[in-house]
């Protein structure tokens, strides 16, 4: 059994407690939060779980093997560093840290102490993303030409990070997981409609060595909630709609072929529109699968699907996006 402590019992912390509590290889020993009212509500649901207002209480309990951090981004580095220094494995909510320098420091310390440091990129464990990865790897989609993603909704405005740091980590991790490739350059544009200078609407473009073009549309000010990704291959195309639980993934036997012609002024294109296929998806809750990967990776000393190199890459891209935003959408090489 892996004994864990969870820091933060907010929106995401509640989901983490539920999934780790229900995992047969895990024992949730302690939950930390600065709000006693939240802890009282937790005790009503999980009377056998201890609670505290003080993070330091974790390290007074030598039985705790791992610490799970579900707090605002600015606090990730300090809390994770403390846990690693005290010999505990760490899982931290996305994005892993507020800077790549902080991420590298944590990775170096975890490696030195032979501890697991894992960012919580839960979408990598969804049946939809796993299936898309499988389809791309099998060659059924062909060579990926573009990915166009929209992640927009009304709120919630964050007080410490812009919309890219809030929403884009999901799609950045998904795209890099699907492509198994890191971008070589980043461009971003956006606007802030508040007085804090944090962009609430932003557009992020990633450039890859393989000539794939990836575009993200992120917004806190949309009248509708959309979670959709279009993946264009030269054989088939995929629509991933996370708001449609019945058909999250659709594969379109649709494409085009450019024909050569002696007259270079003419563009000859053949279009193809074939069948639409909806593959069967694994319905295991992604957060439970993520919790299971964390626990089994500790037990077996293996590398999880959401490893710390993915966490570092996401933070590096977000840092570059900030530089591009500050320079009117300039291309920032990675």
Protein architecture, described:
By secondary structure, this protein is an alpha/beta fold. Helices cover 32% and strands 31% of the residues. It is built from eight helices and 15 strands. The chain has helices spanning 11-21, 36-45, 76-85, 100-113, 127-138, 163-179, 286-300, 308-326, and strands at residues 2-7, 26-32, 50-52, 66-69, 89-93, 117-120, 144-154, 185-191, 201-207, 213-219, 221-233, 237-241, 249-259, 268-277, 332-333. The strands form two sheets. It has a nine-stranded mixed sheet. Helix 4 (100-113) packs antiparallel against helix 8 (308-326). The protein is globular. The two termini are 41 Å apart. 40% of the residues are buried.
Largest β sheet strand count, sense and barrel closure: 9 strands, mixed
Q: Radius of gyration from the CA trace? A: 22 Å
Number of strands: 15
Strand order of the largest sheet: 14-13-12-11-7-10-9-8-15
Shape: globular
Query: DSSP strand (E) fraction?
Result: 25-35%
Q: What is the subunit arrangement here?
A: single chain
Rounded mean pLDDT is 95
Helical coverage, percent range: 25-40%
Question: Topology as H/E string?
Answer: EHEHEEHEHEHEHEEEEEEEHHE
N-C termini distance: 41 Å
Compute the number of helices: 8
Structural class: alpha/beta
Contiguous low-pLDDT stretches (5 residues minimum) are none
């Amino acid at each position: 059994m892996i004994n864990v402590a969870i820091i933060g019992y907010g929106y995401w912390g509640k989901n983490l407690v539920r999934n780790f509590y229900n995992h047969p290889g895990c024992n949730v020993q302690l939950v930390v939060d600065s709000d006693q009212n939240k802890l009282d509500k937790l005790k009503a649901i999980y009377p056998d779980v201890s609670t505290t207002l003080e993070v330091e209480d974790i390290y007074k309990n030598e039985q705790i093997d791992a610490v799970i951090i579900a707090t605002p981004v600015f606090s990730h580095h300090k809390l994770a560093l403390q846990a690693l220094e005290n010999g505990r494995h760490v899982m931290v909510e996305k994005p892993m840290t507020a800077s790549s320098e902080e991420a590298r420091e944590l990775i170096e310390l975890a490696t030195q102490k032979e501890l697991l440091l894992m960012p919580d990129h839960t979408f990598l464990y969804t049946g939809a993303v796993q299936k898309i990865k499988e389809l791309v790897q099998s060659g059924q989609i062909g060579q990926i030409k573009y990915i166009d993603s929209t992640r927009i909704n009304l709120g919630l405005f964050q007080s410490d990070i812009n919309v890219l740091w809030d929403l884009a980590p999901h799609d950045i991790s998904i795209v890099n997981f699907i492509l198994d490739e890191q971008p070589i350059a980043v461009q971003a544009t956006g606007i802030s409609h508040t007085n804090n200078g944090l962009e609430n609407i932003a557009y992020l473009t990633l450039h890859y060595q393989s000539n794939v073009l990836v575009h993200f549309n992120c917004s806190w000010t949309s009248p509708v909630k959309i979670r959709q990704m279009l993946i264009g291959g030269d054989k088939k195309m995929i629509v991933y709609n996370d708001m449609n639980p019945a058909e999250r993934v659709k594969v379109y036997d649709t494409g085009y072929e450019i024909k050569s012609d002696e007259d270079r002024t003419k563009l000859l294109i053949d279009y193809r529109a074939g069948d639409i296929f909806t593959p069967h998806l694994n319905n295991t809750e992604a957060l439970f699968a993520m919790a299971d990967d964390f626990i089994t990776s500790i037990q077996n000393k293996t590398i999880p699907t959401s490893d710390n190199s993915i966490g570092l890459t996401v933070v590096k891209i977000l840092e570059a996006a900030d530089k591009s935003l500050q320079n009117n959408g300039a291309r920032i090489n990675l």
